[in-house]
Specification:
By secondary structure, the protein is α+β, with helices and mostly antiparallel strands. The protein is 26% helix and 27% strand. Strands 28-29-32-36-35-34-33 form a seven-stranded mixed sheet, with helices on both faces. The longest helix is centred in the C-terminal third of the chain and has 19 residues, at 789-807.
Amino acid sequence: MQLSRNWIRQYVSLPEVTPKELALALTMATVEVEAIIDQAKELEGVVVGRVLDVVKHPQADRLWVCRVDIKREILQIICGGSNLSKGMLVAVATVGSRVHWHGKGESIALEKAKIRGVESNGMIAAANELGLQRLFPLASEHEILDMTGYKVRVGEPLAGALGFDDAIFVIDNKSMTHRPDLWGQYGLAREIAALYDKRLKPLKIPPLPKPIGETLPLEVVVSDPSLCPRYAVVVVDSLAPEPSPFWLRKELETLGLKSVNSVVDVTNYVMASIGQPLHAFDYDRVEGAKIVVAKAGKKVRFRALNVETYGVSEETLLVNDEKRPIALAGIIGGADSSINADTRRIVIEAANFNAASVRRTTMALGLRTDASSRFEKQLDPELVPQALAMAVDLLLRLHPSARVASNALDVVTSQSRQTTLEVNHDFLVRRLGFAIDPKIVIGLLKRLAFGVSHKRGHYTIIVPTFRSRDISIPEDIVEEVARLHRYDSIEPHMPVVSVPAPSKDARPRIERALKGLLTQGMGYDELYNYSFSDAYWSERLGLDDRSAVRVANALASEQQALRTTLLPGLLRRAADNLRWRDRLSLFEMGRVFLPDSGEYGVGGSIEKFLPRQPQLVAGLIVRQGASGEDARLFLQAKGHVEKIFSHFGIDLTFEDTDAHRFSEPACVARIHKSQAGSFGLMKKDVVSNVMPQVSIAWWEFDFAMLLKYADQSRRYVPLPKYPFIERDISMIVDAKVQWAMIERALQGVSPILKRIRLFDVFASDRIGKDKKSIAFRLEFARDDRTLEAKEVEDSIAKLSAVLEKAFHAVIR
């Protein structure tokens, strides 16, 4: 959408503001101005000149040496125009101005030049060289722009002479999609008048003339009132379409509209002026002199003015004559009833169409026009008679021999309803956030053409019909007052709010710490999977999806159940990523869905509950081609689980389990005899079909258990003042003895024992059948002094005695 400052000045006496200031005022209060086009700048340095002499160039048959008077001086210019003559008024582009060379490409700056040995100071320009070819459509490409017939003066800047001294504001259409009243120059002028508190001049539209002489028959039928609230037509006779006068072409060009002929240009001018689209039919091509506005009823083909043929559905609203459709209602006219050079009688249509109907058709056909862009916003039906009268008045002025040849038919199927709102002043102040005098409120609303009465702190507001689309609730009135009062005039105040103590929810903090530990401390990559169960990997793991929570509207056959564990999704992503990497550490944190009842009621019910949805954390350690490393991967998974819980101050105990048929071995991790999670090593036959020669260790635990037992106290532990003494012990024990059992047995034996770390487990026939070697490191220290060697030796002796007694260990 484009706004012309000169056009606006016809209706409002603008204050002394620059285009930039006006653009800012509009942007802050009404619509977003994206750019400002300075028309005069495009023609800077181009003036009106008079050709004094035309002499043939001595070195070129097709060039002329001209002397041109531009008032302040006489210039010698070389020119090749075919229509050049002495005394002609021409457009002279002086040195330094910019032109399009031969009307093509980007503009270039003119310089003094010698052409075939003769000096030339500027250019006598053609219309296309100044970018004015659309304004002067009859000018030949090789002809000089002849200004002789125009009211111009020698030496006058061309921009001022032609009225091209306008400022054009380019407005973002999306910022006014809710304001159909702004889709014309008059609507924007009304808004600007309100912004600056200026008087808006009323539109001077003469009433529609009565028919003169013999009247022509015309009938209108609107079969679906909900889709066409108002439809008006009138016939104009004895006119022949011709090129529009210069002023009309210029006004359309200013807004980026192309001039076609006097009839089409009038309809576009009215639309640009007040925002109401019009259409003109050739009366003699409207079969039966009858117009029927109705749905198509069946699939039909329609040939439009743009020479494209469209297939329209049964629900499409059409404008028909007795035999065929002649227009897509609110979008585009038909080629079979269009205005052409032989047209002498026309039907002018002004209508109001349902916005949703127009929108559906434009979307279905991929066809959007200037008319549809306005009808989609739901225009004010009161514009219909205004637009029709305005168009007829212009046509009669452009064609003095024309006459109105029918009675105007105005079919009103739905009356415009005026909205009345009741707004309390206290409500207004609370929403605005500042005090405002009721007199100011009344003045602001009246500037916007609202009817307002005020009594005892209560406003009764009558909304004008052109604002009924966007003003419907009291909050809309608050917005109108605020924007017209100007947002930037509202004095800023810090809000007075109470700041409650933050809830002591440890979940986010522990979740962040956990993810940081996994990604930064252990080298895992985090995954996000859908909550569906992966059918293939669930089957490979031996999970029974038939008992899982089912999806009523599954998008794919493999996504018919919700997951009960995170492992299938992790395995799927591991298989995908092994194409690029042979070592992966992946984890996911997410909810699973168990068929037993959870804590959340369905629709607030206390009898029916959603499935239980615990939040699990699971990980995979994947190594391709890592033959012989299975035991190490298993211990790594155990170590990671242990480290995670240890990081939050939780001690775990472990025991073997056969609950996981897909894993050998597998262990359960417990906290105070409650199961927290499990880990193990995937059986080869589970993954070999998709991931051959791959070893996978896995772990999974319930985040709720971590959250429940995490030590959330923050304690400062000073660095040790005295050094540690380290000793290693290696021993042979029965293969069934677990490290956790050894670790528990050693705890509390010696007060100077600070830490126990396992670093090797080895099994071989050389050390005995069903035996294994375990090596671990002991760290000793005191808090009050440096240890003596004898103290450490005594402690090791006690520890060894415990091991020998409890596990029949052989110390090596």
